[in-house]
Amino acid sequence: MAQQGEVCRRRNFVCPYHAWTYRLDGSLAGLPRAEAFPDLDRHLLGLRKLPSTVRHGLIWAKLDPASDDPPDIAGYLGELDRDLNAIGLAHHRFYRQHAVRRATNWKLIVDAFLEVYHVRRLHSATLGPFFADAVSVSDAVGRHLRFLAARDTTSEIRTLPPESWSPQRHATLVHFVFPNSIFVYHPDYISHLGMYPDAADQTLFVHTMLIPERPTEQKAEEHWRRSFELIDTNVFNSEDLVVCEQIQRGLRSGANEALIVGHLEQNLRRFHSSIEAALEADPRAKVLQAPLA
């Protein structure tokens, strides 16, 4: 787990297994007992280079070493690029990150964050009471998705001028960046969720909390610590991911021959249709790219 407020100033990377050392440009700098490898050409054994770029304060990489061109993230995001800029994503600060492996397919986790039908029920003891029951509006932006989930305070905008409306204070905005990244905009911070499959039934789930500014006093630090524990421990890891693992076990049992998707879960249809289209266009899925937050 990365620590809050931590700035990385490494001069190199060291493999924990045999302690081979690599420079920041990926080249092999040294290795213990080099005499055991008399014919080794260090220039040929650097870390694999991936095309990458920085946009909205995040590092984006294309998982295709054969490609030399950096990814065109603005073009890839389409209208979402304007959204991320308007919400000031690049001006947020890293606070804390938690990575955990869960026994579930990565697409089941994405599914869980693309619909609000479950919110009042699954999260009844945590954040459920703060939301209206399955009220949301959504649209597809190419292969990406964005939706606004109504909170218990959303109706207040009827008494406010439009310039006072906020997609964070009066609702919860969610951006899904195809294929495996989700941004959730809480009232005063942002969660980035990355789903990285290790196997058909195992996923590395990485939650990164981004805050408007670094805490400069103990009161602010305590506020962000409580916020992180609430959403990461009590909601994501104790509710959402637990249910995803239960669904995975149910699917593995073979008890259900089909799944029912209702009108409140239209984003699931859009997501899986986009997955099928991407695989049909390129079975190796080389075109997929995602932020490495």
Topology:
Blueprint: E1 12-14, E2 21-23, E3 28-30, E4 52-55, E5 58-62, H1 73-77, H2 79-86, E6 93-102, H3 106-112, H4 119-122, E7 131-141, E8 144-151, E9 171-177, E10 181-185, E11 190-199, E12 202-211, H5 218-253, H6 266-281, E13 289-291
> Mind telling me the CATH superfamily name of the largest domain?
Naphthalene 1,2-dioxygenase Alpha Subunit, Chain A, domain 1
Cα shape: globular
Radius of gyration: 21 Å
Structural class: alpha+beta
Number of strands: 13
Instruction: Determine the CATH topology of the largest domain.
Output: Naphthalene 1,2-dioxygenase Alpha Subunit, Chain A, domain 1
CATH level-1 class of the largest domain: Alpha Beta
Low-confidence stretches: 1-5
What profile does the largest beta sheet have?
7 strands, antiparallel
Helix-residue proportion: 25-40%
Nearest-integer average pLDDT = 92
How many distinct helices? 6
- What oligomerization state is this entry in? single chain
- The CATH architecture classification of the largest domain is Alpha-Beta Complex
Total individual domains: 2
Query: How are the strands ordered across the major sheet?
Result: 6-12-11-10-9-8-7
| N→C terminal distance | 13 Å
